[in-house]
Structure formats: structure tokens, C-alpha cells
Amino acid sequence: MSPPLPALAQAARYRHPVAGWPGRALQRLLGCTHLTAARRALTRVLPVPALISDVCEVVYLSWWVDVRHAPPPPPGHRPFVHGGRTPYTVLTYRHGHFGPAVAGPLRRVFPSPLQSNWRWYVVPDDAPAGLVTPKVLFDRNVIDTVLHAVGARLCSDAMQPHLAARFEHVVDATGGLTVIEPGQGSAPALRAQVRAAQAWPDAWGAGAFTDAAQAMAFLACQDAAFAVAPDGRLALTHIDLPIALADVQPLQLQAPVTCPHLAAMGVDLAEAFCFRVPQVPFRVVSERLL
Fold first, then answer.
1. Which CATH code is given to the segment(s) 6-289?
2. What residues contact residue 68 under an 8 Å CB cut-off, 6+ apart?
3. Which of 98, 136, 94 shows the shortest CA–CA distance to 118?
4. pLDDT for 180-203, tens place per residue?
């Protein structure tokens, strides 16, 4: 099955953030169709191993976007829409020794990169009226190390991260700052500063969600994600992300957000629903090409 999602396929293509022959060599390597075909043939026999990470300092920034800007959904799905708009989330976090589950205690030697996932939300066409648990449709993914950007792209269709020229994510209980600069690369740009809030906003999800807890559950508690590879093939990943909503902390923007990607869609960047998850175990259960 090869759904026609050209915009997301184009967005998944890698461009190195620094000019020069090393970046051009990486682009050729990661765009090699023979390597992709060989890896897909191998994973039909040997599935992608389960991966785990002790994720921490997760910051969710969510906006309502006019549904006209949403990409075509995967077959059998539709965007979640309320009042002609659909949610869009940028979540950024630090991994904790991200690596294969089979490594056991040796996983502590694995590094802990920064990652940012930019995503839409889709629900099945036959979903009943009312809220259902959505699936994520990745729009962009960003990471802060060459090793993880190259490794993920060579080993997975579902995770095709872009390498940022600069990536900062410093967060604690009082607030934090996230900065993503693409340089000359394909990562999206973002600058967002948040601070701890005393209460949840009432208006952000009015009509779509009954309260902030229901909005959080919708935005954060998924078990599956779609992604489009650079050649247009669609992949589905199942994940385990047991977020305890009682531990989630409300945030509010402290300064204007800079995000050209969302600004181009006419989003009022000041109207964000923000929250922090201090820590959560994360597991990639499976991946398959559709």
C-alpha cells in the first residue's frame, strides 16, 4: 500500500544542517534506495527490536490549526476536527539511555539524545461520535546527534529524524526553554520559553474537550503512530507511553514563540496549550510497513 502523501514524503527527506562534503555524503547515503530496499527485506524476516527509554522533561505545546492545512490522512482515517480546526502538537524531551530492550542493564551505556516530535492527530473513519483515542501522524521529527539521525534513518521507516544545527531543551519544575535551529538543514525552527502555571486554561479546548484532563489525555496518551518515509511508503509504529496524568504540570508561554512552520499555517502562536511530563518510561513495541 502506497498512500499518496507527497507533502509528508517531501518533508521526510534529509538535508544536512552544515554545508560541505560530509553532509552531502550523508544525504546520498540516507537517500540510497538500495539500502532502504535491503533493510526492508531484512525486517520482513527479522522484525525491528523493541526499544526503550527513560524519557524525562517532556514539554507539550499544542495549537488548533485550520484543517485545510492538515495533510491527507492515512487510508481509513480522518483528522480529528472541531469547528473546522484540528490539533497540532510539538513535544520535546530528553531520552534516557535510548536503546534496545534486549540490552538489559547494559542500556545504561547508551546515550540520551534530545528529540522533538511534531504531529497531527487522526481517528478511524468509522470511529463513533465523541472522543476516541487518536493515532499520531508525524509531520516532522528532530534529534540532536548525527549518530541517532543516521542510525534511525538507516534502521526505520517510522522514525526519519532531521538533525538540528542547534538544539537546546532545558526544563525543570519552574519552566524552561526549547531552541531548535536548522542551519542549512531540513529540521524545522522553534524557539519557545515556558514557565510553570498555577491553573489550567479553560478556553483552549472548549467544546472539543470537557476539561484540561481530557485534553491532556487526548494529546498525550496514544499507543500508535503513522509516519511517511521519503519514498512515500507509510509505516505504523505501536508504542507504550504510560503517562500518569496526575503528575502532569500546567505551563504557560513566557515569551513569544518563534516557529515559521506553524506561522505559515496562520496559527496564533500565543494561543498554546502547554504542559510538562516530568518523566515517563517509553517503549517502541513494534513497527511495520503498510
1. 2.40.400
2. none
3. 136
4. 999 999 999 999 999 999 888 777
User: Which residues, other chains included, contact 24 with Cβ-Cβ below 8 Å and sequence gap of 6+?
Assistant: 16
Mean per-residue pLDDT, 243-258: 90
Distances (CA, A) of 267 to 85, 189, 246: 11, 15, 29
Q: What is the pTM of this model?
A: 0.92
Kindly write down the DSSP assignment for every residue of 207-239, as one continuous string: TTBSSHHHHHHHHH--SEEEEE-TTS-EEEEEE
Helix, strand or coil, per DSSP, at residue 147 = helix
**Residue-level pLDDT at 2:** 39
The amino acid that residue 265 corresponds to is: M
Cβ atoms within 10 Å, residue 58 = 24
- Which single residue is written with the C-alpha cell 490549526? 65
Q: Which residues contact 185 (CB under 8 A, 6 or more apart)?
A: 14, 15, 16, 17, 18, 23, 162, 163, 164, 165
Indicate the domain borders of the chain. 6-289
